[in-house]
Design goal:
With 481 residues, the chain is an alpha/beta fold. Helices cover 40% and strands 22% of the residues. The strands form 5 sheets. The protein has a 7-stranded mixed beta sheet with strand order 15-16-17-14-13-18-19, sandwiched between helices. The longest helix has 22 residues, at 95-116. The radius of gyration is 23 Å and the shape is globular. The chain binds NADPH dihydro-nicotinamide-adenine-dinucleotide phosphate. The site of NADPH dihydro-nicotinamide-adenine-dinucleotide phosphate has 33 residues, from helix 7 and helix 8.
Length: 481
């Protein structure tokens, strides 16, 4: 069984307490790796290494930092197949998805920020012939980066790349549920020649290693992606220490389909937005809202798409729908569907575990793509994040009602609008309360744009300029003329 190590001060090391956690392969239900169960002492060693490396890394010319990060991107691309296999084994997602999306995007994250820092500019404000004010941006120091299990390498590198590019050093804590790709990344960083201590990766449990990282006095900025409840606990722990904080949290994203939309495309994409990665993407469209006259067609189309997805061994190329990430998560999704039934919902597709696709996967966590109709806006199923392959479909009469339904949630991460009426598209986009609005598309991302949510979906933004600013402290220099 693969034994994962922490990455501290440029070396792969055992946790100080020699304690390990079994990492379970979701497709089989069997342990496939051992990951360090690190404690506050391991986190302290990692932070000390990062603090020691900080002055030299911050003083390293941007061009050299850029070259090193580009080298990591290259190595990710060269190791695409091995990383995709690790990602698929760790998460239960179809390997084709890991190959096509997760791993290429991890390389793209490094490339994007490695080149962005070569084009940085500063601001200057001339004050009525009296003074010149210019702004210097300096790295903040040691950044704490905490990421979830659903897109493990993609989201981890989305934090690591901007933190390092801007001259910070970092300690990352991947989810204990999916440690494999972060371990591979450690090895690639060593191969790339990243100076010791610039990036450190500590594996372990959120409540132990994660909480110790958030609390550590030498960690000046925390970038966290995960659940809203965990985000609240982190905000509470970080606030009295005045740490810079970015929180990317949960969602219950509305997918609004107007009757004038290109209906075949809207239906196909609504199903893709609901079920990609077994519905375990924070940006998934988990609430489909359809204009009354198109309702039957959308219900039928999405149910048909749900039933036609090939459920299979995640490691096989033909698989479109893999395993849920853990037994606990499978049970959570089952409970959510039971609740939907109790609330009066009609399950028109799925609603049950799927049989194991082969012998290897006999103990795996497979659940059918599920479509529920007939629920009122006040139901818990319509309000609480399920984070699994479950989508609800309801109808609306007009634009105002669509927007009211879309906004009737504590979350505000992403939304989708399907219409061929240009003016309506802009009008609705303006009125929806979410950080991202996709018009006639889903998951189309330009890494320069701000990424993040409003309301309980988070505070702060990642991506492009926002990330460069998050990881740097502005200093105003005022020169009297
Ligand atoms: P969690 O909040 O449970 O965990 C996220 C990370 O935080 C993990 O590394 C976890 O470690 C760690 N953690 C847990 N408790 C603490 C703590 N007290 N202090 C510090 N770190 C802690 O989320 P999940 O991993 O279950 O991910 C699913 C959630 O993430 C969903 O709600 C989803 O919507 C959200 N998400 C949001 C995204 C966004 O961009 N807005 C993107 C992707 C997911 P461990 O796993 O070891 O417990």
């Amino acid at each position: 069984m693969e034994r994962i190590a922490n990455y501290i001060a440029g070396e792969l090391v055992e946790p100080a307490g020699s304690s390990y956690l079994e990492s379970i392969e979701p497709a089989t239900g069997k342990a496939h790796a051992l990951a360090p169960d690190s404690d506050a002492g391991d986190v302290d060693s990692a932070v000390a290494a990062a603090a020691e490396a900080f002055p030299a890394w911050a003083a390293t010319p941007a061009e050299e930092r850029s070259k090193l990060l580009l080298r990591i991107a290259e190595l990710i691309e060269q190791n695409l197949e091995a990383l995709a296999q690790a990602e698929s084994r760790d998460t239960g997602k179809p390997i084709t998805l890991a190959r096509r999306v997760d791993i290429p995007r991890a390389a793209a994250n490094f490339r994007f920020f490695a080149t962005a820092i070569l084009h940085e500019k500063s601001e200057l404000h001339a004050t009525d012939h009296a003074a010149l004010n210019y702004t210097l941006r300096r790295p903040r120091g040691v950044a704490g980066l905490i990421s979830p299990w659903n897109l493990p390498l993609y989201l981890f590198t989305w934090k690591i790349a901007p933190a390092l590019a801007t001259g910070n050093t970092a300690v990352g804590k991947p989810s204990e549920v999916t440690p494999l790709t972060a371990f591979h990344l450690s090895k690639l960083c060593i191969e790339a020649g990243l100076p010791p201590g610039v990036l450190n990766i500590v594996h372990g449990r959120g409540g132990d290693a994660g909480a110790a990282l958030v609390a550590h006095p030498k960690v000046t900025a925390i970038s966290f992606t995960g659940g809203t409840k965990t985000g609240a606990a982190i905000a509470k722990a970080a606030a009295p220490k005045f740490k810079k904080l970015s929180l990317e949290l949960g969602g219950k994203n509305p997918n609004i389909i107007f009757a004038d939309a290109d209906m075949d495309l809207a239906i196909a994409e609504a199903a893709r937005a609901a079920f990609t990665n077994q519905g375990q993407i924070c940006l998934c469209g988990s609430r489909i809202l359809v204009e009354r006259s198109a309702y039957e067609r959308v219900v039928e189309g999405v149910a048909k798409a749900a039933k036609s997805l090939v459920i299979g061994d995640p490691m096989e190329d033909s698989t479109q729908h893999g395993a849920l990430v853990s037994r606990e998560h499978l049970e959570k999704v089952e409970t959510a569907v039971e609740l939907a039934r109790e609330e009066g919902g009609t399950v028109i597709a799925g609603g049950e575990r799927a049989p194991a696709p082969n012998e290897r996967c006999a103990g795996g966590y497979f659940y059918r793509p599920t479509v529920v109709t007939g629920l009122g806006a006040d139901c818990r199923t319509e309000r609480e994040e399920i984070f699994g392959p479950v989508v609800t479909i309801s109808s609306f009469e007009n634009e105002d009602e669509a927007i009211a339904r879309a906004n009737d949630t504590v979350y505000g991460l992403a939304s989708m609008v399907w219409t061929n009426d240009l003016r309506r598209a802009h009008r609705v986009a303006e009125r929806i309360e979410s950080g991202i609005v996709w018009i006639n598309c889903w998951m189309l991302r330009d890494l320069r744009t701000p990424f993040g949510g409003v309301k309980k979906s988070g505070v702060g933004r990642e991506g492009g300029e926002e990330a460069l600013r998050f990881f740097t402290e502005p200093k105003n220099v005022c020169v009297k003329m």
